[in-house]
Design goal:
Elements lengths: L3 H11 L3 H14 L1 H16 L7 E5 L5 H9 L4 E6 L2 H13 L5 E5 L11 E7 L8 H11 E12 L26 H11 L2 E8 L2 H20 L7 H21 L7 E7 L1
Parallel strand pairs: 1-2, 1-4, 2-3, 4-5
Antiparallel strand pairs: 5-7, 6-7
Helix pairs in contact: 6-7, 8-9
């Protein structure tokens, strides 16, 4: 199933006005489990770097800009560079951030396969990006070169345990744009080490509770929208009913140490 056409439909709905754009970010923050995990990790990193000021951050593959928005508001002393290969999404983000008066984020249309800014960043964030890139080893090398000494790389990506919703051999991914089904801990650790990273820590996300949450928040609504855009009118009522279960499942997932999961979060140091 291809996700981009559905994102375009939602974007056309929410990105028309500043207020609805902010509402869209708020909904992503509150509903999506990956956001809960990323926010928690960013707060931990911020606490460990509290002695430093004016950190330089790269949002590598910023997409719709929700993580850059969160960091810009939560950590106003951070200077954020947000890059993505999709020119239209960069333009939408640039317009919104400019109108919102957010001055500590700059957007650029760039390909991570060739983007390098040597010894520039204290932290690089890459959320649900690596599974879309064929030459991931080259990108990891570029990110390593772009980090300052002791800089950190935070990655969120599907695991190889069904993270792209592939249930059996030759079955189709729910996310049709992925070039791989996901990463094993061993594969990701090896690739990061080859790029030069050290102190690599990994953890599974989207365990049993998180997987149920993802189905409620994303899979079932997206499948319904793929069948008919008319389901948009029913989404508010659907989410209102599902919200208590989603919050409970998300809370359970971030506090449980999973032996396996369909998501993978990785933190590595240069």
């Amino acid at each position: 199933m291809h996700y981009d056409p559905i994102k375009k439909t939602l974007g056309n709905l929410f990105f028309r006005h500043q207020t609805t754009h902010k509402l869209f970010y708020l909904l992503l923050d509150f509903m999506l489990l990956r956001t809960w995990h990323i926010h928690r990790a960013l707060k931990s990193i911020a606490n460990s770097q509290s002695h430093k000021k004016n950190l330089e951050i790269l949002d590598a593959g910023c997409g719709l800009g929700q993580y850059s928005y969160y960091m810009a508001k939560k950590f106003p002393h951070w200077n954020i560079t947000a890059v993505d290969i999709k020119e239209k999404e960069i333009a939408i983000c640039q317009k919104f951030f400019t109108k919102a008066g957010i001055k500590n984020v700059k957007f650029m249309q760039r390909d991570l396969s060739s983007f390098v800014e040597p010894i520039q960043y204290d932290l690089i964030l890459s959320v649900d990006v690596m599974e879309h890139i064929e030459d991931d080893q080259e990108v990891l090398s570029n990110l390593y070169q772009s980090l300052k000494p002791e800089g950190k790389l935070l990655i969120n990506t599907p695991s190889n345990l069904g993270g792209s919703d592939v249930g059996q051999h030759n079955s189709e991914s729910f996310i049709g744009e992925h070039v791989r089904d996901g990463y094993s801990i061993e594969d990701m650790t090896t690739k990061l080490a080859l790029a030069g990273f050290e102190n690599i820590s990994t953890k599974y996300t989207y365990g049993f509770a998180g997987n149920l949450s993802w189905r409620l928040t994303m899979k079932y609504p997206m499948k319904a929208l793929a069948l008919s855009k008319g389901f948009l009118a029913l989404l508010p009522f659907y989410y209102a009913l599902a919200l208590p279960a989603i919050v409970a499942l998300n809370t359970a997932d971030i506090y449980i140490r999973h032996k396996k999961g369909t998501g993978l979060q990785v933190l590595a140091t240069k």
